[in-house]
Design a protein that fits this description.
The structure is a single chain. It contains 8 helices and no strands. It has about 200 residues and is mainly α. It is globular and about 55 Å long. The chain starts with a helix and ends in a 12-residue tail after the last helix.
Amino acid sequence: MKNIPYILIVIRFLLAPIIFFLAYLKGEESRFVILALMFIGLLTDIFDGIIARKVGVSTEKLRRLDSQVDLVFWLSLGLATYFLNTELIKSHWLSIALIFIMEALCYIISILKFGKETCTHAFLSKMWGLSLLIAFTYLIGLQQAGWAFHLTIILGIVAHIDVILIILILPKWQYDIPSFYHAWQIRQGKQRKKTTFFN
């Protein structure tokens, strides 16, 4: 049981190059296979943390690995979307660039302050992940941006601001911080009760 979270993370990591090459080599005919792999990847992301906490292996090493694999996985979907809908993505390049800049800022600020990458797994970041799922479903499956794209951009901005605030507020590096409010409580010396199904 203790190896299951690592297996799920590895599965998600392996899905990333498969998604990339399917979009790059197969193009249009790979759309729905990519969508299926995306949903499988999301399920591995949900259950790796739950199982890890349940069996007592939710360590710093595992959570940092989980965060980095998440980044690789969603980047592969972003690249796949670009290959499949190049003109559509180009028409929204400014909004997408803003999200990339904010993601980079989270890493830069965390590394400058703590010497480590960010690993908050915050609540708003999880909500953003779900919105990405919807947006990619629209972009890859329906070849349109629409409300799902705009929602994920708005949530992405809010979620990244939350992560930046968490980093700035925390007195020392920690992982699995639900929000900047919880970071503030930690700064005040209050202990946070962790749960199996969240973090």
